[in-house]
Amino acid sequence: MSPLSAALAALRVYAVGAAVVVAQLLRRRLRGFAEPVFPLQLERVAIVTGGTDGIGYSTAKHLAKLGMHVIIGGNNQGKAEEAVRKIKEETLNDKVEFLYCDLASMRSIQQFVQRFKMKKIPLHVLVNNAGVMMVPQRTTEDGFEEHFGVNYLGHFLLTNLLLDTLRESGAPGRSARVVTVSSATHYVGELKLDDLQSSKSYSAHAAYAQSKLALVFFTYHLQALLEATGSPVTANVADPGVVDTDLYRHVFWGTRLIKKLFGWCLFKTPDEGAWTSVYTAVTPALEGRGGRYLYNEKETKSLAVTYDLELQRQLWARSCRMTGIADVTQEAFRG
């Protein structure tokens, strides 16, 4: 795909996304945005990746407001310390902290999990939020294409390494939850099992869309495994919509111009964008219910191909090989 074609494809995606939400956002602007009311989450623990800014920061802040012990995972110590300070001040919740985690490094993810488990605390909510968007072609520490490696594979490994703690922390009627943040961009994504690293023909837009599509496949297969093993853990996808964040710094200049001129009415604020993640993490309406795709706090259908069980299994198996995780699919479904 040529740079021009990629840019036009990106513009189409965001134009469609903006058209879908503009009426809702205008109504919110006119009447004022009212924060939904959720039950307090005292004595519960959450990890939020990418919680230093944007949607992740707002998600961490709102979970802290509900009384949760929130651990922010990120790779920028300075930004994280400032985020923790601000959240503590605004929420009056001292149980907010930072642990270093670079999703571009499997070694860093493993160290993050080790440090977390040394705390000997439960884990009730894991929000897989961090990500990169339309970056130039480059690879992670482990040699994976950056969108695939950070957005998808890093969270795949992190989730699997924390599953034992999530299972121990969940209980019937009070499940632990995995919330994975995808995007409407997944609707134009294509899962290329023969080229997951986008090495044959690189397009930043296509690579980003594939990573967000992979997260949906991952969530649905994870939920199937959890159900098959009777685990008190659920896995759902949260779609924040079109949100005004710094992720757009790498997109086509025309998209950035539209964002600058019309962002106030076409884009959600980070607080508004975070609500679907927060809803998915704490609402009683989703107790014991997984394998859902949530947009604007409502269940909707993801791309049709994401429900293909064989593709789910194939991506999971390849991801296990890439990360060194044991694939328990056959064992789980045989039991």
TrEMBL record:
<dbReference type="InterPro" id="IPR002347">
    <property type="entry name" value="SDR_fam"/>
</dbReference>
<dbReference type="Pfam" id="PF00106">
    <property type="entry name" value="adh_short"/>
</dbReference>
<keyword id="KW-0560">Oxidoreductase</keyword>
<comment type="similarity">
    <text>Belongs to the short-chain dehydrogenases/reductases (SDR) family.</text>
</comment>
<dbReference type="InterPro" id="IPR036291">
    <property type="entry name" value="NAD(P)-bd_dom_sf"/>
</dbReference>
<dbReference type="InterPro" id="IPR020904">
    <property type="entry name" value="Sc_DH/Rdtase_CS"/>
</dbReference>
<protein>
    <submittedName>
        <fullName>Dehydrogenase/reductase SDR family member on chromosome X</fullName>
    </submittedName>
</protein>
